[in-house]
């Protein structure tokens, strides 16, 4: 097996060719594992009418890092699919909120575990599954439920993705990825769900074979493009959130 | 005298049994992580796949790649493990959480509760609340007994969109510890000096001893 | 958090108390990852009317190692759930086969990927899911299918397990497990699906914290009992299959 | 002269394109792992979660904790990764296999095939065949054109219980390479010296050029 490198030169090359109308999943949970640099590159790249999938639209905390809210402000987003379409405090006003309230952007709110499972299902060729989550709530109104083993469960469909933006700790040239600590979060699932997986990587990219096969978190056959994150200020890295 | 928030946390944590896996929600419930458990072995799970986390890191010692579900830079205890989000919620839906402790806007005597959407809002913040509420073995709530304008948060039926139906096990407020019984809240404990009449006056449904 | 060890003294202690009528999942694929020692202990322990879940019933290759076929021969098995209820060659006769043909043991044949996914679903609180696998075959006759995105898919139910027998490479006292190479196979899924997880472990059991949290394959909260495999001949270890 | 089994493997492997992920079934298809691919990058996937395996280990060099789906002690190539069975079949059902190559008892002109249950048997051996057949982008079969008693294995409709409906892309036998077209098999290639008439005589349905 001849092995070709998946490394691309920079973030602009990494996001090149993403068409208008794409569904883009963006990894991360709070600060860890968010592909800030790829989001920043997508702001420059300018693709429009995007559907963006992530845990949140971002912008509730300082300092603000590149987020879906910025893509919204930049006129690039048609719809978001998130487990938060408002902040965790009733008093939070997210940058995304006024656009949503004016009807300029659509939003689908999905329980976090259902969001994770719908992404995995898309990657796993499972077109739909049943879950007890959200039964009896506003989210289940008018939707299909059934009784299984005496419990009412809700039908949920797979959530396929065109492009996944991933942030990883280590990668080899074959695209095998490792995540550090809670950086893992949604990233491996979005890699499963997507047709095109682009990873920004913190450590220097290793030759194929440098990661023990037992220690790979996301297999390289799922990953198409890798880009090394330069040191700050050129590259964006997690910073401590300001207290509030 | 009503309980302080750390006292509420301490009182609720007294209910935890040896060996429990515990998920702590955003806000008030994070105070429980500061409660000492002595001989009881308690393992904290966080939605983002952190199993076995410990106290918040000391200032300057934060690992910026490690947060709990509240976004706090926590530490890891020996025996900790990291999994991805789908495996993390597999543990939740799979019934591995002995208890989930959440904040809430409203708790109802029928066991419903509401914590994801405020009145008149277009969006909401669900996070992992619906998954946890549907599948944890026990759902404990921590909330103030009334809103800032004095409206009771404990009531017969929720007025806000609910997070799950009939799942609440215990509710702690600054006034006491309560269990929903269907049509009422049963008092399990009262803060020192708080009377049953005071609780009844602050609650929008029957309160039983 | 005080941390108590999950290590038990020997294989007999590891399988103590498994009641008649239990559903037992047994890890492994070919030689790697099969908990030979726990199966051998269950032969001694003698629980009856068992439902056994594994990839195969075993016994097609030499040397023969402890397998479901031996539990069948020992009168302990009511039913097997496997992806093979015959050998991979038409000429193979498995030790299990005559019992099955005489109707003394029931068998449910399940496609391998569906078996893996049904185990995961049980562990993940997903009571049922849809899959394209087996549509149009004898296995789907009389069962519920539906069209999703223009494709016919089959409803499959979670497969919950009472006891999982696991073989791991490394463990710490908190029960965190690591597998080596293709030893992983079904083992992590059976650990997810089971109420009681018993792992035989190849390396000396490590203190809690000795496995980096990023490198854990099966989190310790799923595992209740650990037992170190002694060196041969006391402990059973994989051997090379004889050519045939 | 009909192709030998290694020649069948070589002929089928010529169809593989650069960058493909390939799953090889038990039996004859394992011969493909010995075919050199030159500049074409081919990655082998095995049902038990091995991605990127290489040749069978030399005698005495076997890693007893590493097998492919046929139970052979294989080696790993640089860039290999190991996943568990559910993640492995996620790759299969998720459509990541560019081709699966399987042995079969019967192949039908309508694209059905049978490889898990023999006539009159109570049990069967499915393994990963139904998952692979349902979801791989292409299904290639390797089989002998006739049974030992001379009965054709290529036919209009399968007589044995099928593994999947209408999925077969290519069939290689010792006589040639064929593609099912609905009511016939179209010849894509013939072994040297084998004639169309010989193929037709050995096949239980129409064969087209």
UniProtKB/TrEMBL annotation, chains A, C:
<dbReference type="InterPro" id="IPR012792">
    <property type="entry name" value="3-oxoacid_CoA-transf_A"/>
</dbReference>
<dbReference type="InterPro" id="IPR004165">
    <property type="entry name" value="CoA_trans_fam_I"/>
</dbReference>
<dbReference type="Pfam" id="PF01144">
    <property type="entry name" value="CoA_trans"/>
</dbReference>
<dbReference type="InterPro" id="IPR037171">
    <property type="entry name" value="NagB/RpiA_transferase-like"/>
</dbReference>
<comment type="similarity">
    <text>Belongs to the 3-oxoacid CoA-transferase subunit A family.</text>
</comment>
<protein>
    <submittedName>
        <fullName>3-oxoacid CoA-transferase subunit A</fullName>
    </submittedName>
</protein>
<dbReference type="InterPro" id="IPR004163">
    <property type="entry name" value="CoA_transf_BS"/>
</dbReference>
<dbReference type="GO" id="GO:0008410">
    <property type="term" value="F:CoA-transferase activity"/>
</dbReference>
<keyword id="KW-0808">Transferase</keyword>
From TrEMBL, chains B, D:
<dbReference type="InterPro" id="IPR037171">
    <property type="entry name" value="NagB/RpiA_transferase-like"/>
</dbReference>
<dbReference type="Pfam" id="PF01144">
    <property type="entry name" value="CoA_trans"/>
</dbReference>
<dbReference type="GO" id="GO:0008410">
    <property type="term" value="F:CoA-transferase activity"/>
</dbReference>
<comment type="similarity">
    <text>Belongs to the 3-oxoacid CoA-transferase subunit B family.</text>
</comment>
<keyword id="KW-0808">Transferase</keyword>
<dbReference type="InterPro" id="IPR012791">
    <property type="entry name" value="3-oxoacid_CoA-transf_B"/>
</dbReference>
<dbReference type="InterPro" id="IPR004165">
    <property type="entry name" value="CoA_trans_fam_I"/>
</dbReference>
<protein>
    <submittedName>
        <fullName>3-oxoacid CoA-transferase subunit B</fullName>
    </submittedName>
</protein>
């Amino acid at each position: 097996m001849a092995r070709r490198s998946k490394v691309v030169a920079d973030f602009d090359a990494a996001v090149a060719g993403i068409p208008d109308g794409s569904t883009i999943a963006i990894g991360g949970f709070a600060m860890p594992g968010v592909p800030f640099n790829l989001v920043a590159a997508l702001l420059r790249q300018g693709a429009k009418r995007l559907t963006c999938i992530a845990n949140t639209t971002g912008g509730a905390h300082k300092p603000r890092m590149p987020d879906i809210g910025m893509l919204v402000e930049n006129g690039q987003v048609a719809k978001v699919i998130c487990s938060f379409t408002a902040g965790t405090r009733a008093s939070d006003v997210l940058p995304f909120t006024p656009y949503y309230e004016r009807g300029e952007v659509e939003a689908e709110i999905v329980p976090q575990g259902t969001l994770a499972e719908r992404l995995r299902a898309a990657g796993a060729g499972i077109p739909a599954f049943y879950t007890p989550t959200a039964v009896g709530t506003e989210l289940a109104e008018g939707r299909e439920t059934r009784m299984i083993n005496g419990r009412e469960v809700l039908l949920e469909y797979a959530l396929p993705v065109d492009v996944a933006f991933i942030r990883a700790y280590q990668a080899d040239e074959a695209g095998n990825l490792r995540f550090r600590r809670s950086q893992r979060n949604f990233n491996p699932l979005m890699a499963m769900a997507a047709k095109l997986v682009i990873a920004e990587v913190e450590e220097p990219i290793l030759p194929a074979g440098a990661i023990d096969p037992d220690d790979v978190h996301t297999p390289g056959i799922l990953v198409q493009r890798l880009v090394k994150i330069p040191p700050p200020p050129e590259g964006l890295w997690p910073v401590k959130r300001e207290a509030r | 005298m009503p309980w302080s928030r750390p006292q509420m946390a301490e009182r609720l944590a007294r209910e935890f049994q040896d060996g429990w896996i515990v998920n702590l929600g955003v806000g008030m419930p994070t105070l429980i992580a500061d409660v000492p458990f002595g001989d009881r072995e308690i393992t904290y799970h966080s939605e983002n796949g952190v199993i076995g986390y410990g106290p918040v890191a000391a200032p300057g010692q934060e690992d910026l790649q490690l947060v709990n579900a509240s976004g706090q830079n926590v530490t890891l205890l020996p025996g900790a493990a990291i999994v991805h989000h789908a495996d993390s919620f597999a543990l939740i839906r799979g019934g591995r959480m002995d208890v989930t402790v959440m904040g809430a806007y409203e708790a109802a005597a029928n066991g419903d509760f509401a914590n994801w959407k405020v009145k008149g809002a277009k969006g909401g913040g669900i996070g992992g609340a619906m998954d946890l509420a549907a599948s944890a073995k026990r759902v404990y709530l921590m909330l103030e007994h009334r809103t800032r304008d004095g409206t009771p948060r404990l009531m017969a039926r929720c007025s806000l969109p609910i997070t799950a139906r009939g799942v609440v096990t215990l509710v702690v407020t600054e006034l006491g510890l309560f269990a929903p019984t269907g049509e009422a809240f049963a008092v399990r404990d009262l803060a020192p000096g708080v009377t049953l009449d005071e609780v009844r006056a602050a609650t929008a449904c029957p309160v039983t001893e």
